[in-house]
């Protein structure tokens, strides 16, 4: 790709790439910087590039956004003045007890997978390793368990 071809294509791609990065990052300042970095990397590869370079540019901006988000861990402070309203706590406890009773009626394998995923917060890979199955089998069993719980919960309302 020649320098003129690169410049022409880069100018046409820049607004779309900036919008994409802004959606990922929630603002245009960092998005502009990331798109500029992507264009610089593409310029370094200009001799090897072929038209159209839009797919490569989108992947590059996508990856740069992910890298940026990983490097800049954002934390939110918890305001102690926002104490939850506990006036409806008995109704919440009843719903939780009802849900746990429904979970107790599931087959043992589905119970285990559902509890490991939603109560213990384990990943699919960890559950598969623990149960000796594949991730696909764990996802399928979890889906079936969720459907059974939903069906029983809605049926017994």
From TrEMBL:
Protein name (record): SigL protein
Taxonomic lineage from the root: Bacteria, Pseudomonadati, Bacteroidota, Bacteroidia, Bacteroidales
Domain RNA polymerase sigma factor 70 region 4 type per the UniProt entry, residue ranges: 97-148
NCBIfam families, sorted: sigma70-ECF
Organism this protein belongs to: Xylanibacter rarus
Record domain RNA polymerase sigma-70 region: where: 13-72
PANTHER family on file: RNA POLYMERASE ECF-TYPE SIGMA FACTO, RNA POLYMERASE SIGMA FACTOR HI_1459-RELATED
Keywords (A to Z) from UniProt: DNA-binding, Sigma factor, Transcription, Transcription regulation
SUPFAM superfamilies assigned to the protein according to its UniProt record, in alphabetical order: Sigma2 domain of RNA polymerase sigma factors, Sigma3 and sigma4 domains of RNA polymerase sigma factors
Family to which the UniProt record says this protein belongs: Belongs to the sigma-70 factor family. ECF subfamily.
Domain of life of the native organism: Bacteria
GO molecular function: DNA binding; sigma factor activity
């Amino acid at each position: 790709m020649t320098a003129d071809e690169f410049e022409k294509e880069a100018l046409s791609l820049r607004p779309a790439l900036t919008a994409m990065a802004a959606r990922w990052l929630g603002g245009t300042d960092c998005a502009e910087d990331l798109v500029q970095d992507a264009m610089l990397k593409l310029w370094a590869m200009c001799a090897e590039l072929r038209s159209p370079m839009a797919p490569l540019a989108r992947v590059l901006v996508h990856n740069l956004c992910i890298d940026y988000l990983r490097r800049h861990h954002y934390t939110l402070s918890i305001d102690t003045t926002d104490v939850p309203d506990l006036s409806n706590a008995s109704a919440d406890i009843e719903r939780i007890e009802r849900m746990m009773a429904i979970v107790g009626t599931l087959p043992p394998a589905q119970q285990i997978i559902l509890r490991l995923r939603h109560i213990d917060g384990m990943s699919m890979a960890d559950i598969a390793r623990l149960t000796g199955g594949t991730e696909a089998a764990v996802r399928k069993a979890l889906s079936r368990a969720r459907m059974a719980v939903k069906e029983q919960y809605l049926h017994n309302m």
